């Protein structure tokens, strides 16, 4: 059993914002697989064969509360998780798989590390940068994408969806070789 977790904020006012990139990617996966969500684990949740899908509704900074409920219920190990989220240090249109690591200043990842007591979970980072140097970080990540950026995000979310599905049956080295680059 493996879990694909997209990070974001649940209210519609956050749709199309940089911080909801994880939700955007998982939405593509749900459409592609024609999967319907229910509410469980403080999240929107689905189970399809051996794949679990989680979109925490706890808001970004408390994502770990939802993730730990899923992990405990299904008795998952951190390495059974793929967390998809926005990364400010990567340029828009770039993907990066990581096997583990620090939170990198991302509060959603910080919450997951805290609740799992581990940083050894897989990540798929989706670039949303570069940040406007004259803008506050919180304002930047909660800003909606421009029309042009949204077109790029739609393309990269489709590629990231494929990458997440590949993760289910591939090793990290192959995934990194194939997907760790700028696509659009």
Structure in words:
By secondary structure, this protein is of the alpha/beta class. The chain has an 8-stranded mixed sheet, with helices on both faces. Helix 1 packs across helix 5. It starts with a strand and ends with a strand.
Provide key terms for this protein.
single chain; 6 helices; 38% helix; 8-stranded mixed β-sheet; alpha/beta
In short:
It contains 6 helices and 8 strands. Helix 2 runs parallel beside helix 3 (107-116).
Percent of residues in β-strands: 25-35%
Q: What is the element string, with H for helices and E for strands?
A: EHEEEHEEHEHHHE
Dominant shape: globular
Number-wise, the strands total: 8
Through-space gap between termini: 32 Å
Give the averaged pLDDT, no decimals. 96
Could you give the order of strands across the largest sheet?
2-3-4-1-5-7-6-8
Q: In terms of topology, how is this protein built?
A:
Layout (H helix, E strand, L loop, with lengths): L1 E5 L14 H13 L4 E3 L2 E6 L2 E6 L6 H12 L6 E11 L2 E5 L8 H10 L5 E8 L7 H5 L5 H21 L4 H8 L1 E2 L2
């Amino acid at each position: 059993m493996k879990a694909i977790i997209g990070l974001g904020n649940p209210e519609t006012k956050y749709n199309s914002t940089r911080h909801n990139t994880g939700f955007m990617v998982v939405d593509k996966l749900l459409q592609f697989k024609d999967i319907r969500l229910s509410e469980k684990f403080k999240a929107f949740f689905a189970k399809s064969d051996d794949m679990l899908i989680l979109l925490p509704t706890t808001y970004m900074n408390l994502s770990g509360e939802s993730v730990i409920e899923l992990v405990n219920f299904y008795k998952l190990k951190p390495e059974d998780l793929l967390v998809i989220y926005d990364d400010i240090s990567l340029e828009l249109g770039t993907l990066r798989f990581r096997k583990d690591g620090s939170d990198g200043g991302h509060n959603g990842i910080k919450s997951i590390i805290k609740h799992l007591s581990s940083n050894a979970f897989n990540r798929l980072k989706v670039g949303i940068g570069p940040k406007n140097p004259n803008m506050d970080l919180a304002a930047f990540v909660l800003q909606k994408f421009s029309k042009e950026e949204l077109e790029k995000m739609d393309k990269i979310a489709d590629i990231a969806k494929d990458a997440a599905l590949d993760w289910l049956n591939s090793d990290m080295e192959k995934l990194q070789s194939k997907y760790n680059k700028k696509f659009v």
